[in-house]
């Protein structure tokens, strides 16, 4: 992917902890069911997988939130379960029930057969990355940077063993405690696959990558370090940190991971995503300013009246500014945006983040 001048590089500068004119903002799951235009495209695609596996549709929905809101980054439209799907586990999405695998990992033989997938099985993802990069270019300049992503080795393992989402992770955690050898084999394969997957996204044009450890917070202290953090470290160690002369930042996000911020910062990640249970100023102090921080508005705030949304946005920005600087902060939600969110409330949020963060810098 040839180098293109970025019209708006605020997000990348924030990840490098460089001064910015305002706090950049993007939203986890920003291309999603809360947007009527997304629902229209998904209907044309016929199914979620039909949408995710078609580069033209994936490009269309990736750009939809950028056309509606002045966001500072685009994120590839895909799903975290593409990697285990390519491993032959038989991914499907049941209406109203979420993802399911036809062949979950339940026995020693299941785990023995597991292998890192051929990345050609995921070419549709890499084609989407390249197509999105091209579509982001207007008048010779790229509008905003493009983020690639993957699920973490542990989060992927949760779905691969449970066969679907879970409230208590009983099956996967039972395997972890009773047969740690099997769990380590799954996680070793996943870590290698995730690193290869993200590197291929980088080669296709992703300018930053994020690892979603959505279910790491379900683990006990000590167990988290052994079965989630260790394997995210392996991913980070294998990633391309530069490509075509450009630094490629990596963001790690463990939902419910506030207890382990120091451990996460020690991985060498450029930024940590944090959920709404974390105070940003204390998080910056605990991590010693070694990495940028991303977050951390509770997504349910977006159901409040617009003035309350704006007030909560200011509170998050004030929390970070209390650390003594506004540099190194990317505003985001503490998890994905709800499908029932009003797009008008998102407009208020982004306007307040941009406007108020400029005011904070003028006061400093």
Set down the secondary structure blueprint:
Elements: H1 10-15, H2 36-45, H3 48-52, H4 55-68, E1 74-75, H5 82-86, E2 91-94, E3 98-101, H6 108-113, H7 123-135, E4 137-138, E5 141-142, E6 146-151, H8 153-162, H9 170-178, H10 180-204, E7 208-213, H11 223-238, E8 242-243, E9 246-247, E10 250-254, H12 261-265, E11 271-273, H13 280-286, E12 292-294, H14 306-321, E13 329-330, H15 343-363
Helix pairs in contact: 2-4, 4-7, 7-10, 8-9, 8-10, 9-10, 10-11, 14-15
Protein name: Uroporphyrinogen decarboxylase
EC number: 4.1.1.37
Keywords: Lyase
Care to give the gist of this entry?
With 364 residues, the chain is α/β, with parallel strands linked by helices.
Report on the structure:
Its EC number is 4.1.1.37. By secondary structure, this protein is α/β, with parallel strands linked by helices. Helices cover 46% and strands 12% of the residues. The chain has a single domain, classed as Alpha-Beta Barrel (TIM Barrel), CATH 3.20.20.210. It has 15 helices and 13 strands. The strands form four sheets. Strands 1-6-7-10-11-12-13 form a seven-stranded parallel beta sheet. A two-stranded antiparallel ribbon has the order 2-3. It is globular. The N and C termini lie far apart (39 Å).
